[in-house]
């Protein structure tokens, strides 16, 4: 997706060889027009899959996921990283190790909002080791829901996330693939480095 690739190249800040900061349009300030376009693209890719819910994880997945959900005209459900005191009924729970924070969170979704009647499209901002997406897929499995696919904005293709998701039998679609962050530079897959 050219608009996203341009933003990543122009606004992305390389923190180190493994981490890219995109606070200018995704993780702090949000480019709403770009999120809208992302909704269109994922809708065109997954519109024939009978999607009933968009599933993401707080906080940074929510902005793109809500626009995808709007386009599909289905709810956006986000997994929470802490159990609120107000959640007293049943819930699904799994552990997710955060790549950027190097911390494991127990993430949860209320069983009120996910069931075996659902087909989910999982959306997240980044794909690194695949922990967040696999965790969301496990939550869907606990509910008996079907995972139609994983939609990622920025895939770091030098990390094993895609391979792990594909090994689990999941379809992965990413809109921008980063080949390398070496030399303080973003190199996209297919670019001449
Ligand atoms: P994974 O779960 O695939 O290992 O990592 C993906 C999650 O970690 C995403 O939800 C994202 O929030 C965060 N993440 C991983 N790598 C990066 C990165 O390079 N930059 C930013 N901003 N977030 C990242």
From TrEMBL:
InterPro entries: PRTase-like, PRTase_dom, Pur/Pyrimidine_PRTase, Xanthine_PRibTrfase. GO terms for biological process: purine ribonucleoside salvage; xanthine metabolic process; XMP salvage. Residues 48-157 form the Phosphoribosyltransferase domain. It is found in: Cytoplasm. It catalyses: XMP + diphosphate = xanthine + 5-phospho-alpha-D-ribose 1-diphosphate. 5-phospho-alpha-D-ribose 1-diphosphate binds at residues 128-132. It holds the Pfam family Pribosyltran. Keywords: Cytoplasm, Glycosyltransferase, Purine salvage, Transferase. It is an enzyme of class 2 (transferase). Xanthine binds at residues 20, 27, 156. CDD domains: PRTases_typeI. The keyword Oxidoreductase does not apply. GO terms for cellular component: cytoplasm. Pathway: Purine metabolism; XMP biosynthesis via salvage pathway; XMP from xanthine: step 1/1. Its EC number is 2.4.2.22. NCBIfam families: PRK09219.1, XPRTase. Belongs to the purine/pyrimidine phosphoribosyltransferase family. Xpt subfamily. Homodimer. Converts the preformed base xanthine, a product of nucleic acid breakdown, to xanthosine 5'-monophosphate (XMP), so it can be reused for RNA or DNA synthesis. This is Xanthine phosphoribosyltransferase. It comes from Staphylococcus rostri. The gene is xpt.
């Amino acid at each position: 997706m050219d608009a996203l690739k341009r933003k990543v190249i122009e606004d992305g800040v390389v923190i180190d060889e493994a981490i890219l900061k995109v606070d200018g349009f995704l993780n702090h300030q949000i480019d709403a027009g770009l999120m809208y376009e992302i909704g269109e693209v994922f809708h065109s890719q997954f519109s024939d899959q009978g999607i009933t819910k968009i599933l993401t994880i707080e906080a940074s997945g929510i902005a793109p996921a809500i626009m995808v959900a709007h386009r599909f005209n289905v709810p956006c459900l986000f997994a929470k990283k802490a159990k609120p005191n107000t959640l007293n009924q049943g819930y699904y729970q799994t552990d997710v190790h955060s790549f950027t924070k190097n911390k494991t969170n127990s993430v949860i979704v209320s069983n009120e909002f996910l069931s075996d009647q659902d087909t989910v499209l999982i959306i997240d901002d980044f794909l690194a080791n695949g922990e967040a997406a696999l965790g969301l897929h496990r939550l869907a499995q606990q509910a008996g829901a079907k995972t139609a696919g994983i939609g990622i904005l920025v895939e770091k293709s030098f990390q094993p996330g895609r391979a792990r998701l594909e090994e689990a039998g999941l379809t992965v679609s990413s809109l921008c693939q980063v080949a390398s962050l070496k030399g303080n530079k973003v190199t996209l897959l297919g670019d001449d480095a």
